[in-house]
Amino acid sequence: MTSTRARRQSTLELVAARIRAHVVDMCAGPEGGHLGGALSSADILAALYFSVLNVDPQRTDDPDRDRFVLSKGHAAVGLYAALAERGYFPVEELTTYGRPGSRLMGHPVRAVPGVELPTGSLGHGLALGCGFALAHRYAGRDARTFVLLGDGELQEGSVWEAAIAAASLRLERLTVIVDRNGLQLTGATDGIAPLEPLADRWRSFGWAVRDVAGHDPDELARHLDAGPWEPGRPSVLIARTVKGRGLPFLEGRSSSHYVTLSPRNHARAVRALRTTEDAG
């Protein structure tokens, strides 16, 4: 860590902090939201939208754009925050989340600029990503496809069917990020359906694998920009994260999965995020 980095947060860290702040505000609305998984993936989203993805908010139909699929669609509040910060729609629209008439629903839909496909029914995103990657190949485009999976989602058999297909089709322009926060709605993922050794499992399916700490967006961006890591193989980045990251009273707890923050806890969360940002 450089002395400058020690004194001041990087640009991507500041973006991730803003994403977390928006997530907390949205989860203080009347409908609440999937707080824990959105906070655990904030650094991943910051790295993607502000360093890695070749996208232009003013040209959402550019055929050469990279594609991103939020397979863990319940973390939509995190995606909305990233899209707003990136300029796909005004940040002020985030205040409409979950309200009658808003296009910002509990799971992402294509009415929201920047959302490629509606998601939320877990286990489908990787197959959709395979379709994008294959379409790019047939069209002769160099565009990349990124898919963000939850670790609880890896219990879906369709994920592994798509993983087999991606490897057999040699979709080297396809990258998966696993938000490995270790928790799902009903408890610890490994207490419900053990996944480890997760890196070896993906390798056995023919993927190039990197297993990293998941809360350094600059490091995440470095890995994601370097793909494909092995010629002819799709890539998977296992990002070791903390559910509810940034809120000490909810970090590492399955109770953070879906939360409607009371005014008191909203203020508490805002203070916690400010303390973390100031410490950076």
From TrEMBL:
PANTHER family on file: TRANSKETOLASE N-TERMINAL SECTION-RELATED (PTHR47514:SF1)
CDD domains attached to this UniProt entry: TPP_TK (cd02012)
Entry cofactors: thiamine diphosphate
Family: Belongs to the transketolase family.
Pfam families: Transketolase_N
GO MF term (any one): magnesium ion binding
PROSITE patterns: TRANSKETOLASE_1
Gene3D superfamilies recorded: 3.40.50.970
Keyword terms: Metal-binding, Thiamine pyrophosphate, Transferase
Protein name in UniProt: Transketolase subunit A
Top-level division of the source organism's lineage: Bacteria
Domain annotation Transketolase N-terminal: ranges: 15-263
